[in-house]
Specification:
mainly alpha, Serine Threonine Protein Phosphatase 5, Tetratricopeptide repeat, 10 helices
């Protein structure tokens, strides 16, 4: 999937970029509650996606992929629900070493986005850098800096800006920031 070229600014909040939480529990209790929600709850699709996330965390990637596919099949691709599932699936794939598949999922979200969701520049920069598309990563990072220079010009705010990211993910984005700082691309 081709990643679209960055726009000038990305100020928009996007409900897409939220972890799916239907129930709060852990371990077997979580699985049991999610199964009940899938059987007779009003949020069946979201429960399926949360169960898929849990399965990824348990290393059951085949089951997780199957559950995510079921959730995607049961939702409309351009709906908030479908976009949220794709965003979450992208993160689970990324965190399990399926970086290209994650990038493809996020690129589709970027292509279908209305406005300029603020999650796109740092997330796409991370994925592009990790897939060795470094020039594109720097271009996307530059979009983050253009949008919020006081937040993205240094790595000092990464923990506050990216609380759900791992230290390794923030460190990788720090590499992108360093490349941007060394040679910031000009906006056309």
């Amino acid at each position: 999937m081709n990643v679209p070229k960055p726009k000038e600014f990305y100020f928009d909040e996007d409900r897409t970029a939220e972890p799916i939480r239907v129930v709060e529990a852990e371990g077997d209790a979580l699985v049991e509650k999610l199964q009940k929600e899938r059987e007779r709850g009003r949020r069946r699709v979201e429960a399926t996606a949360q169960l898929a996330h849990y399965a990824f965390g348990e290393g059951r990637t085949d089951l997780a992929t199957s559950l995510y596919q079921a959730a995607l099949d049961a939702s409309q691709a351009k709906s908030i629900q479908g976009r949220t599932i794709r965003w979450n699936y992208g993160w689970d794939m990324f965190r399990h070493g399926e970086t290209q598949a994650a990038l493809d999922a996020w690129a589709q979200l970027a292509t279908d986005a209305i406005g300029g969701p603020s999650w796109m520049p740092p997330t796409l920069a991370l994925a592009l850098w990790t897939t060795d598309r470094k020039d594109e990563a720097v271009q996307w990072y530059a979009a983050a800096v253009r949008t919020e220079p006081s937040q993205w010009s240094s790595t000092a705010n990464f923990s506050a800006l990216l609380p759900d990211w791992s230290e390794q993910e923030r460190a990788t984005l720090g590499e992108v920031q360093a490349a941007w700082l060394q040679n910031p691309p000009a906006w056309p």
